[in-house]
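Section 5: illustrative case.
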């Protein structure tokens, strides 16, 4: 992504660490990644990761999804075309019906 470190970043000393993407899943059309993009968090707190970035296979960001709950683990069910996630604090399971979304790149 524009404005983020390239691979030369790993050749230098890392004085800081940012976790841009926490989890990712993919199907034949898109890559779905939970996005954080901030400094690492402490072990005693839960971060409010509530954003998915959706990329096409050329690496173009085609959509941003914002959920109403924090995202922990994610799973893509290609049979139902649903993207499941857990709430990191409660382990509740939620899903996004991808059939209801339009990711066309107009």
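Designed sequence:
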């Amino acid at each position: 992504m524009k404005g983020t470190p390239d691979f030369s970043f790993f050749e230098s000393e890392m004085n800081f660490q940012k976790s841009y993407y926490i989890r990712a899943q993919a199907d034949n059309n898109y890559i779905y990644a939970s996005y954080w993009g901030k400094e690492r968090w402490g072990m005693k707190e839960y971060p409010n990761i509530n954003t998915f970035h959706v990329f096409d296979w050329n690496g173009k960001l085609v959509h941003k999804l914002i959920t109403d709950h924090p995202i922990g683990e994610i799973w893509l069910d290609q049979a139902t075309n649903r993207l499941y996630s857990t709430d990191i604090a409660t382990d509740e399971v939620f899903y996004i019906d991808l059939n209801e979304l339009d990711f066309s790149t107009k």
